[in-house]
Design brief:
It contains 7 helices and 6 strands. By secondary structure, the chain is an alpha/beta fold. The protein has a single domain (2-195), classed as Rossmann fold (3-Layer(aba) Sandwich), CATH 3.40.50. A hairpin with a 5-residue loop joins strand 5 and strand 6 (187-195). The model has no long low-confidence stretch (mean pLDDT 95).
């Protein structure tokens, strides 16, 4: 099955840990989304419920008449008390830089009051399973976030957390995968194309 993972376009808040903080797409963000979807047809679209992803997915579904599914498991990582703040501000606090480093290196470490990468990977694995077990294996566009895209790649490709930071996923990045499940129920995937905005 062909799955396109598309990170929502820019909101103009690069450097912020916007997990549940939900700024709208900027006009350049809308342009990024339109360039990544123009002249392409998917039979269904799955979207995070966060407005910066959902608004563009709803617009695409309305224009093309394709099915739209809003799935909360594709929401960005909940950064808890860090949500909406910049890396720089957090790192400037006593012990902040070390905690950020540990958070990005250890999948079990939670953001204060938020989720761990393992939590995120578990819900994205559920969401991916729902897509892969659809009765009709049509191409699917998933409009989501940098964190959820990394979690999907980890699940489908078997990449460990540390390796995921070697792939830049800017706002507006589209990653095309061929994916499926083996007879043992284990999901697999291969990258077909990466298009940066």
């Amino acid at each position: 099955m062909r799955i396109d993972l598309l990170r929502h376009g820019t909101t103009g808040r690069d450097g912020h840990l916007d997990g549940r903080t939900d700024p709208p797409l900027s006009e350049p963000g809308w342009d990024q989304f339109r360039r990544q979807t123009q002249s392409r047809i998917w039979r269904s679209v799955v979207s995070s419920p966060l407005a910066r992803a959902r608004a563009a997915a709803e617009d695409y579904a309305r224009l093309t008449g394709c099915a739209l599914d809003i799935d909360a498991d594709w929401s960005e990582l909940d950064f808890g008390l860090w949500d909406g703040r910049t890396h720089r501000d957090i790192a400037a606090e006593p012990g902040g830089e070390a905690l950020l480093d540990t958070f990005h290196a250890d999948a079990e470490v939670r953001a204060p009051g938020g989720e761990s990468w393992s939590d995120l990977q578990a819900r994205v694995a559920r969401a991916t399973h729902r897509i892969l077990t659809r009765p009709e294996p049509a191409p699917v566009l998933v409009v989501a976030h940098g964190g959820t895209m990394r979690a999907a790649l980890s699940h489908l490709l078997g990449w460990p957390l540390r390796q995921l930071w070697s792939l830049r996923i800017r706002p507006g990045t589209r990653i095309t995968l061929e994916a499926g499940q083996g007879g043992d129920g284990v999901s697999w995937g291969e990258i077909v194309e990466i298009i940066q905005p």
